Amino acid sequence: MKKVLGIIPARYRSTRLAGKMLIPIAGKPIIQRVYEQASKSGFLERVIVATDDERIKSFVESIGATAVMTSPHQPSGTDRVAEAAKQFDADIIVNVQGDHPFIDPKMIDELVEIMLQRQDVNMTTLVKRIRREDMRAPSVVKVVVDKNSNALYFSRSLIPFPLNKEMLNVYEHIGLYAYRNEFLQRIAQFPVSSLEKIESLEQLRVLENGYDIFVVETKCENPHFSGFGVDTQSEVEKAEQMLRKLSS
């Protein structure tokens, strides 16, 4: 049986919300919520937090989890995950976004199942059908795929452009990835690519270097809740509202 490891990249100095990993949502820090959700996956043997800050490491260890220190100079979450993965013996690595406090563990399982079933797939990620109100939001990443379910492009712009309204079919990217470890180490050796810089989307480095990313549409219920990411103070407040609504 292949060994599967979940790694949560947790940078302290977030561009728009510094220290967000330790910001509480309904009394529980975001990183703790992510860790607890990821730990419910049926496939992950371990869940590790990869951080660049002793404050995050100290908190993670205080809740009984494992944290490893990584370079503060890593350009992306993928690079941080790759650095941490070198310290562990694992065949498949799942990159669990540290700012998705409600991630459904079934989403993780969907990706790992593909990696176990398809030996030709080196990297996979999730999408969901986009909501109309999110189509033009640059914070919501869109993706188009080919007939073999491989990604053609990811963008903060609206793609494909719905010139024909009757054929409207737009997918939103959920920033959850699974890789074969050797492939992860390979792509982490490439320099930051031009499109990656322009869009600030690390997955474009993979496409620019000629590799495929297999795309899976999640079957999880309420993917807009599970895939919700926190990047600003207003999104912290929205997350708390979402939790109150869910429990009411």
DSSP helical segment count: 9
Biggest sheet character = 9 strands, mixed
Estimate the mean pLDDT confidence: 93
**Percentage of residues in helical conformation:** 25-40%
- What is the CATH topology? Spore Coat Polysaccharide Biosynthesis Protein SpsA, Chain A
**Do you know the CATH architecture?**
Alpha-Beta Complex
Work out the count of structural domains. 1
Any low-confidence stretches, pLDDT <50, length ≥5? none
User: Terminal Cα separation, in Å?
Assistant: 42 Å
CATH superfamily: Spore Coat Polysaccharide Biosynthesis Protein SpsA, Chain A
| Gyration radius from CA atoms, angstroms | 17 Å
Large-scale geometry: globular
Structural class: alpha/beta
SSE order in H/E notation?
A: EEEHEHEHEHEEEEHHHEHH
By DSSP, the count of extended strands is 11
* CATH class (first level) name: Alpha Beta
Strand content: 15-25%
State the gist of this model.
With 248 residues, this protein is α/β, with parallel strands linked by helices. The chain is 31% helix and 22% strand.
SSE topology:
Blueprint: E1 4-10, E2 24-25, E3 28-29, H1 30-38, E4 46-51, H2 54-62, E5 66-69, H3 77-85, E6 92-95, H4 105-117, E7 123-129, E8 142-145, E9 151-155, E10 171-180, H5 181-188, H6 194-199, H7 204-208, E11 214-217, H8 223-226, H9 233-247
Parallel strand pairs: 1-4, 1-6, 4-5, 7-11
Antiparallel strand pairs: 2-3, 6-10, 7-10, 8-9, 8-10
Helix pairs in contact: 3-5
